[in-house]
Write a structure and sequence with these properties.
This protein is an alpha+beta fold. It has 15 helices and eleven strands. It has a four-stranded antiparallel beta sheet with strand order 5-4-7-6, sandwiched between helices. A four-stranded antiparallel beta sheet has the order 9-8-11-10. A hairpin with a 2-residue loop joins strand 10 and strand 11 (382-392). Helix 1 (11-28) packs across helix 4. The longest helix is centred in the last third of the chain and has 30 residues, at 396-425. It starts with a strand and ends with a helix.
């Protein structure tokens, strides 16, 4: 059962009160935790309270991450939507707990690191941002933990939906091939669901505000990550290349009036409001598989040397490298060399895509048979030697089928998740 302290009966009154308190905290420079004792409850979810502090903290984080102006108007407009989001997150946590799902801290930390990388942030960038806002890491960790637990819960509860028959993959690939030569668009999306009709205008207002910020220069990826309720939010809203024929009529009609590089107006779909960024357009290439970038397992030996030392010391290290090369009969031998040879040697096992190799390494191993040592290579501060332990080739056809299968699974789970969350809210 969900109960809201004035939320259902007077949402804007509550939003205004919250917005005023938030602006006081921001402009007075007060850390939110210090005010928590003076704050009440905005909703309860099956007897679990959501406090005004929870709302204030999330508002503060959302405004900072989205680049929206920290004004009373912004807070008042976002507050009802964020309350709904906090309610959904608590429902997700409770469902995951019912299924015995527990997300460890290291999984949350890994997710934070992926998020920082996707946003071009330095390591620990999110923790630094939270600290600058006077917030604890729990404000972020609770949100990510709920999303991770929900994903696991969906795959457990709707396991049957993840079983995609080969025939379904074949049919989807055939559909893609049938679209060859037809227009496709490179799209990103910000999706805002409307679970209850009375909230339609409220959600539309948020969508209009987001569009205004986008036109004012706010980064689309940041806004999608912060506001979108689609699975694509994890990748900044990126939908990739989409056939215009596959979109709902109201969407394709609206996009027909949008130029490449522009944003669509908020479009009302059966599930909610959506804003698209039409990044590019072209004709479809059909079901062409992706260019395969093979993986390579590489053993790397590094022999440090001083480039400013005497020439005799340099030659001594070069001779050492050559002798070690003669002993390098497999990757395991190279891996053990630092244990038996003095001089600060290091040996690393690397798994990389061919495209990730530096030009120097790529040239050294390009025609090198597996299990054979490369020539000794001089780099600044070291001599290096490489050995290819394994090359992992992938079929372009297999990669295409895997991507199609995963997309079909994601579409099914997304639809099931929205319906299930609506059921939990009742």
């Amino acid at each position: 059962m969900i109960l809201s302290a004035g939320l259902r009966s007077a949402p804007m009154l509550l939003a205004a009160r919250v917005a005023a308190a938030l602006m006081l905290a921001i402009f007075a420079g007060l850390p939110l935790p210090a005010q928590a004792q003076r704050m009440g409850i905005v909703a309860t979810v099956n007897s679990v309270p959501i406090s005004e502090y929870d709302l204030h903290a999330r508002l503060k984080l959302v405004i900072a991450m989205s680049g929206l102006p920290a004004t009373r108007e912004t807070a008042q407009q976002l507050a009802p939507k964020i309350i709904d989001t906090l309610i959904d997150e608590e429902l997700k946590r409770q469902e995951a707990k019912t299924l015995g799902i527990d997300i460890p801290d290291n999984a949350v930390e890994t997710a934070v690191q992926r998020f920082e990388k996707s946003r071009g942030m330095p390591a620990n960038g999110m923790l630094d941002l939270l600290e600058s806002l006077g917030l604890t890491k729990d404000v972020l960790y609770q949100q990510i933990r709920a999303d991770l637990a929900w994903n696991d819960a969906l795959r457990l509860r709707f396991r049957a939906l993840t079983q995609i028959a080969d025939q379904e993959v074949d049919e989807e690939i055939a559909r893609l091939e049938a679209d060859k030569g037809k227009p496709v668009a490179l799209l990103s999306e910000i999706f805002l669901p409307v679970d209850e009709q009375p909230k339609n205008e409220e959600v539309r207002g948020v969508a209009e505000r987001i569009l205004g910020e986008l036109k004012g220069g706010a980064p689309f990826q940041a806004m999608a990550t912060t506001f979108s309720q689609s699975p694509t939010a994890a990748v900044g809203g990126d939908l990739g290349w989409v056939s215009l024929n596959s979109l709902a009529p109201e969407v394709s009609q609206a996009l027909s009036a949008v130029k490449s590089g522009d944003f669509s107006p908020p479009i009302r779909t059966a599930a909610g409001w959506v804003i698209y960024w039409l990044r590019d357009q072209r004709v479809s290439q059909g079901a062409t598989g992706p260019t395969v970038d093979p993986s390579i397992v590489l053993q790397q030996l590094t022999i440090p040397v001083s480039d400013t030392g005497p020439a005799s010391a340099l030659e001594e290290k070069r001779d050492l490298a050559k002798r070690l090369r003669l002993r390098a009969d497999n990757c395991a031998t190279i891996a053990e060399m630092p244990k038996s040879v003095s001089g600060g040697l290091t040996s690393d096992t690397l798994r990389l895509r061919t495209s990730q190799l530096s030009p120097l390494v790529r040239d050294a191993v390009k025609d090198l048979p597996d299990g054979k040592p490369s020539e000794v290579v001089k780099v600044p501060g070291a001599f290096m030697m490489f050995m290819v332990c394994e090359r992992v080739s992938e079929s372009a056809k297999d990669v295409l089928r895997t991507r199609v299968r995963n997309r079909l699974i994601d579409d099914r789970l997304d639809l099931a998740a929205r319906q299930f969350l609506r059921d939990l809210r009742r």
